[in-house]
Amino acid sequence: MGRIGGNEILEAGDDDIEALLAQVAPGLQRALVASFGADVGAEATVDALAWAWARRRRALSLSNPGGYLYRVGASFARRSIQRAGRQRERDRFAVVPDRPVPDGSEPGLTPALAHLSPQQRGAVVLVHGYGFTLGDAAVSLGCSVSSLRNHLDRGMTRLRTELGVDL
Amino acid sequence: MNDDELLDRLRAHADELEAVRSGTIGRMLTDARARSGDASVKRRKPALLGAAIALATVVVVGGAVWRYAAQRRTIHVSASDPATSLPGQGAAVTARIELPDTIVGGSQVEAALVIDNNTGASITIPGCGPSWAIALTNASHASDIAFALPCREALVVQTGQTKFPTVVTATFAVCSNGTSNDDTTPKCLADTSPPPLPPGDYTAILVGLGKDPLPGIPNPSPVTVHLVAAP
User: Fold this and answer.
1) pLDDT tens digit string along B156-189?
2) How distant is the Cα of A134 from the closest Cα of chain B, in angstroms?
3) Does ipTM top 0.85?
4) CB proximity list for B141: less than 8 A, separation 6 or greater
5) Rounded Cα–Cα distance for residues A28 and A63 (Å)
6) Which of A33, A51, A83, A151 is most worth mutating to test chain B (most B CB atoms within 10 A of its CB)?
7) A62 Cα distance to chain centroid
8) pLDDT digits (tens, 9 = 90+) for A85-141
9) Across the interface, do B28 and A1 touch by the CB < 8 Å criterion?
10) Residue B164: which H helix or E strand, with range?
């Protein structure tokens, strides 16, 4: 296969790529939304899927398409965030920005999550929020289990510190 | 708060995300297919042909632009395809790329697509088609730009001159942390961001989803850019 990003001769069938993308889309969206917030993550998911659609033969050859497309989507997300630099960082991680905090919710969680790196946020939300195994979360984030564990440990340590969690 | 409560909060956060997320997969796939320009699927040029085209572009266009730039200032201005827009011959629509002639690898620089619409009426490019970007390419680096922002908006080109600002990023668009089975993908930096493009001469071109990045607008001529390593 040639270098990344160039135009490709597309020979794979639409059914094949549709099936693949339908399979990876939910996990991809969870991972990107967990890492970059609801709006940016959802948009990045569509961008990553479109990227795969336009390079379907390449996408079909990937051993971990979900993890690979997470990294593609993360690149889009970073670019989008850079363009929208004026948006307050913490707003990106509120599920519904400016919504009143519901009873029982932790008001400090959203700003605390905003202080994590995208990889730490993704690891924390996927593992402790969604209940992914370390292996599944690593596949979703396109990294090794040991990297995932580092992101998770650092993210949780920072969350505990910021939220004053009693250990 | 104790650790169990923190985990409860994270589960509640994930539940909220899931509630927002659920039911959107079908629409996402539809959007993705439309955004990919499915109706006009791109074709990879053979590597040698691509390299030859890139080199020829650098030689033919680059020489003229370099001479022009050397005489003028640090902003390149490229005319549109002469066949449709020779200056002074009343071309209805012309387009050109503006960006600095020297870029530091890894940086982001402001650039612009400038369109002169002399048709007397505004031009609307509807739907998902008008996704465009200015990409840096050369014989060893094909454009790997993909499209994120303008897809859901029609692009309206008013009469007169319209300047569409954009940002050109002198990095690879994607990278790998080593887990990918694609050994042609560059390694990510320590902060997981894509690495800078290597120094050298590049050609800045307008790229888009379909065959014509901006249907109805002539393609601007490529602009040669010298990319230098970060100090």
Assistant:
1) 788 888 888 888 888 887 777 665 455 566 777 8
2) 15
3) no
4) A3, B197, B198, B202
5) 15
6) A51
7) 18
8) 645 454 555 544 444 444 555 567 888 888 888 899 999 999 998 888 888 888 889
9) no
10) strand B160-169
